[in-house]
Specification:
- The protein is mainly α.
- It is 88% helix and 0% strand.
- The protein contains one helix and no strands.
C-alpha cells in the first residue's frame, strides 16, 4: 500500500511540474508575441526607404 502512495505522489508531482513548465513557456510566447506586435506597429508607422 505504501508503494501505491509513492507512485501516485510521483505521478502528481510530474503532472504539476509539466503544467508549470507549460505556464512558463506560454508566458514566454505571450511576451514574444507582444514584442512582434510592437515591431510590426513600429514598422507600419515609419516610411520605408523614402
Amino acid at each position: 500500500m505504501r508503494n501505491l502512495f509513492w507512485a501516485y505522489a510521483v505521478v502528481w508531482l510530474l503532472h504539476v511540474g509539466y503544467l508549470m513548465s507549460l505556464a512558463v513557456r506560454q508566458n514566454g510566447l505571450r511576451r514574444e508575441i507582444a514584442t512582434l506586435k510592437a515591431l510590426i506597429e513600429q514598422k507600419g508607422q515609419t516610411p520605408v526607404g523614402r
